[in-house]
Amino acid sequence: MNAVAIDFEQFVQINHSEPVTTSEFVAKAFGKKHCDVLRKIEEICTQVPDSFGERNFALLEKERKNNLGFFVKNKVYELTKDGFILLVMGFTGKNAMSIKIAYINAFNAMAEKLRQIQAQQHVSISHLISKEQADNIQLAVEQRSQRTGESYQKIYAGLHAYLRIDSYKTMPVEHYTAALKYLESVPDAPELFKPAVTDRQVLPNINKDGRWLVIVKNSIATHVENINGYNCINVDVFKKLRMQTKQQAEYLLELAKRMRVIDGECSNSRLDVPIEELHPKFII
């Protein structure tokens, strides 16, 4: 068979990220019976380590219709470049050498094409933002939500629309700075952001005179409660008052125990010791 008439790149394919051919293609290229090629492959597999045979000669089964119209399964081997070279090493005949060279060139061309595809995929992945950058964007979204009152969903939707991306997690790295500026910007676009709050809006629940408890977090009033009828005291004064009340309670408890002497339920010796010596912290 004339090697020039065969497009060997059609005989070499990519499977599991590796260029491969099949025993059928080899038989066709060298003008041999497929059964003879199969026999040669199985002979080789008995002479090489199992690991080499399994890696370079993968047994497949193809279902075909026979002449009677029945479906039958035929054996086919899938060969790597190393398996192919070992198989055809002893092939002879007209144009055998040129066929081998053309086949090997096809393997090399497919390997180069695979390398380029993998390089493009690597570039695509390496041009996406890192996990740390994605975490920074998430933090910026949280801070914007606290600052403007917008929901996370609305902020993310606005960010994705602004950058024309599907998700910030798979965002090209060149958009990273623009994303942060967008999230840190002043909310001055009514159609996208909540309007700036006014003093009247900050405390919407204060609708009458009186005494009010206001809890502020991140410059935003998070809780407003009317405390009319309650007295407010200094925290330190309250703690001191609570301590003194506890001491007075312990003093009264000691007096109650001493009263039990009358009923004979307590030793008279308890009366011989001043209360302040039993409990030096008592305030009398």
Walkthrough of the structure:
By secondary structure, this protein is an alpha+beta fold. The strands form two sheets. It has a four-stranded antiparallel beta sheet with strand order 1-2-4-3. A two-stranded antiparallel ribbon has the order 5-6. The protein has helices spanning 23-30, 34-45, 50-56, 81-88, 96-126, 131-148, 152-163, 176-184, 199-202, 235-259, 275-278, and strands at 13-14, 19-22, 57-65, 71-79, 212-217, 220-226. Strand 3 (57-65) and strand 4 form a beta hairpin. It starts with 12 loop residues before the first strand and ends in a 6-residue tail after the last helix.
Lay out the secondary structure.
Layout: E1 13-14, E2 19-22, H1 23-30, H2 34-45, H3 50-56, E3 57-65, E4 71-79, H4 81-88, H5 96-126, H6 131-148, H7 152-163, H8 176-184, H9 199-202, E5 212-217, E6 220-226, H10 235-259, H11 275-278
Antiparallel strand pairs: 1-2, 2-4, 3-4, 5-6
**β-strand amount:** 5-15%
Q: So what's the overall shape? A: elongated
Question: How confident overall, as mean pLDDT?
Answer: 77
Oligomer: single chain
N-to-C CA distance:
120 Å
Strand order of the largest sheet: 1-2-4-3
Question: What structural class results from the helix and strand content?
Answer: alpha+beta
- Gyration radius over CA: 43 Å
Helix percentage: 40-55%
Catalogue the unreliable spans. 188-202
Q: How is the biggest beta sheet arranged?
A: 4 strands, antiparallel
- With helices defined by DSSP (H or I, 4 residues minimum), what is the helix count? 11
Total beta-strand segments:
6
SSE pattern, N- to C-terminal: EEHHHEEHHHHHHEEHH
